[in-house]
Amino acid sequence: MAKNENIAVIAGCQGINGSHGTQKLLANGWKVIGISRRKPEGGWSENPNFQHISVDLLNEDDCKKLSDSKEVANASVFYYAAYVKKEDREDEYNTNGRMFKNGLDAVDKAAKNLKRVLLVTGTKYYGEDLNISLKTPFREDDPRKDYPNFYYAQEDYIAEKHRQSSNGRWSFSILRPHDILGFSNTGGAMNMATTIAAYAVLCKERGEKLKWPGNETCLKGVYDCTSADLIAEAILFLTDPSNTKTQNEAFNIVNGDIIRWEWLWPEIARYFGLQYDLKVEQFPLATKMKDCDQEWTDIAQKYNLKEKKISNIATWGFLDWCFNRKFDYFTDSNKLYEAGFTQRRRSEAVYLSLFEVMKEMGAIPKYEAKNMPNFGSTKEESVIVKMAEVQISESKMVRSK
Fold it and tell me: Which end of the chain is more exposed for a tag (fewer CB within 10 A), N or C?
């Protein structure tokens, strides 16, 4: 990889954010060095502009593979999208804080041409995971909550590292999305859309209605969310080191609209050809679906799905948490728009296009899509299909330009 090429190092390249970011940069002529413990297979990982380095970011010695790498030495962008889930809050804080520190230290040491460091955290920064009453919309300068939040550790370290060692060589930007919607062939924790899709498939195969499993507050409340593809577009936008409005700043990023589940849930049910029930019964999906592994294996065999394990697409406990929020949570993303970013997404279209992507990638059965929504004179179906086609094409082999 030559010094004058656009080269990015992406940590967590197999996760939802990392894989979408990798695909977007490859599709725009970048060279990408992907970091993860396991080597990705197929699709974009076979692109000649993609190189993988197997690294355990928790192991400081293993990170020498990065600091000693001749390929990393020519990188101008480091995008960090890695995450390890831990049930204990303190453990999660320490683990993810240490991973980010090790990764940034190694890349900073190697990449003498480093210009931009990009970090994705999230609206948990505002204490959303505490499920308490919070001031909304969330804004970037809202005060922190007093509890161990690994986003604080990561954001503090990126600022500290910038002050201590960059000497103005690189600047950073932080993105804070809310309820990320995307699909990765390698799975992904905390994914509402793919879990809803798995729930809908099981209901369809059982001949059941798509019942609302959450509380009334969440059903009728106002929420927003973020397409992983939109995050990838923002990453591409933020790679420009000359935009002074993005330097050393944090930005909320959401689709730009709001949703209420009381009207989105019926649309999802109609898409899958299901009847729905909005009666509030508050049954935990983690309990209802705990013994469905064999059932999904049978469905996968019936429809020749590539995804044989439901655990790779469904995180029942996370969806239970999302659907039992006690308050409205939504976000102000004007700061990013004021910095020059212009893209938005219609959240309903994001959900349905993602289901189309999952069908194409063999994650769920290719049921005929029912009752695509139509708004005014513009057919939403064409928007949904177009969004799905872009994501599918980028997830497959992307030739260098």
Answer: C
